[in-house]
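Supplementary Methods, section 5.1.

A reviewer requested that the exact input to the structure prediction be made available. We therefore reproduce it here, unchanged from the version used in the analyses.
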Amino acid sequence: MKKLKFLVAVVLLVSINLSQAQKIKPAKVKKVMKTVADWQIDHYRDAFSSKEPHHPLDWTNAALYVGMVKWAKMAEDTKYYDWLKKIGDKHKWKLYRYKYFGDDQAVGQMYLDLYRKYRDEKMIKPTKEQFDFILLHPAKTSLQWNTPYCLDRWSWCDALFMAPPVWAKLYNITGDRKYLDFMMSEYKATTDFLFDKKENLYYRDESYMAKLDNGTKIFWSRGNGWVFAGLSNIMNELNPESEEYRYFLGIYKNMAKKLVEIQTPQGHWAMSLLGQEFYPTPETSGTSFYIYGLAWGINQGILDVETYEPSVKKGWNALVSHVTKDGMLGYVQPIGAAPGKAWPNKSEVYGTGAFLSAGTEVYKMYKGK
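The structure derived from this sequence is encoded token-by-token as follows.
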């Protein structure tokens, strides 16, 4: 029996090493991205984490659109832009339910990106009007969790992916600093509150600061993935010579250094980032966001290729190994706020969005090689 277990372990180790050693070819990256994008469009209204399909303007789908826009730019097929545009037209380019709630602003990222392509004022008008109202009536509530109206500000780390890039894009498009100034003020407040300077990771919200999981601090993988990908999306909108860009760059570099240190041998990141021995199950949404952010940094000349490319390569090969023949990305953790479980036959729209974001930067990395 011991000999059999040893042989099984050897086979698994060899298969993992072979997978990680596979060369990444741009054509294959593009092919798997198309398969995943097409599958998701076909299954767009399927329910995964919930009994009913997510509302088209919900944060779950907004994260999908962020990746789908990036894919549309490289797809050489207008059907992806057409699909996104129909969603905006159907909902009159309005943000989702609550005026101050960061998650409900996330769909604005897609609207503003489509505005840049089509230059149709109706695509940007509702977002601009809502943000102008917020500027005139800013929330004064606490960032402490479960206090009254704490969700009117970015009191949870996921929000740093959802809302700040919309403010940054609006600043870039209009040239009006009031959008940038508001974003910077609120982002700094959240970071000062939720960022652990020792670990260079974000707590999901205040309620996790005093908790331990198997003796380790709880840093949720997808939660930090939201932040890390959001940093790239924000910096894309800023002048690299600006003070604001340098602020985000500092956070980004600290997180990137930490992330490569805690990546698992299999290539993914554990659902509890500091507790991989307790969470061996792969998780593809957080991993996709990390691969996106790291590959983006290499492409921007921010991260050293020799140091960071092995992590991107290992992570991308791990992600692709969890894509079914039909194009479903498996092992996406369901909706949550903390480390949990994931399954090979369970997906989610935000996982697909993260995968498509990752693919665009991985493609750029290897296109010239």
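The domain at 26-93+194-367 is CATH 1.50.10.10 (Glycosyltransferase). These observations are discussed further in the main text.
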